[in-house]
Amino acid sequence: MQDELMIRPITAADSAAVISLANEVHGDNYLNEESLAALLEAGTVGDINLSFLAEKGGELLGVRLTAAPGQWPIDDACTPSAWKVAPEHICYFKCAAVAEGARGLGVGKKLLSASIEAAKQLGCEAGLAHIWMQSPNNSAFGYFSACGGELITTHARRWYQASIEDGYYCPVCDGTCYCKAGEMMLYFSSERL
């Protein structure tokens, strides 16, 4: 039925709509064709795709981009010594974006659940995310915590390099990004979806 919420894997054909929604939510040039293509590749192993979108009546309501274990960088904004699961069993929740009119309707949780179920097929036991701590009303932290995410630590200026080198425009900082990221782990044995 056209009016039901449909959750399905993201394909290359969805690129323009996914980029538009992610940039609307997170700021201009958060995603572009090249970065999205790389994320979709990092989130696909064989016939398992970890990235999903939600649509209703042909309208895109939300996206969840997730990278498979070994397909995302463990950089200086990661604290592996605090993780209870080995990196080869951890996926990376890169991006979640829900259209403003669809927020609070469970779209984000359904997308996260779809990514988790796909990640479990790869042997994942947890997912790491860098949560935007300056999101409006700190809603990103509240949402991920409600899903079972545990805060490990925070990292200052997580998206600073992207804003000065890659053209990312932070809507909170009005350009160059000084926002903090909350490094959070969602252990699949404790998820609350």
TrEMBL record:
Residues 5-189 form the N-acetyltransferase domain. Coiled coil: none annotated. SUPFAM superfamilies: Acyl-CoA N-acyltransferases (Nat) (SSF55729). It holds the Pfam family Acetyltransf_1. One of its GO terms (molecular function) is acyltransferase activity, transferring groups other than amino-acyl groups. Keywords: Transferase. It comes from the Bacteria. PROSITE patterns: GNAT (PS51186). InterPro entries: Acyl_CoA_acyltransferase, GNAT_dom. This is GNAT family N-acetyltransferase. The lineage of its organism: Bacteria, Pseudomonadati, Pseudomonadota, Gammaproteobacteria, Alteromonadales.
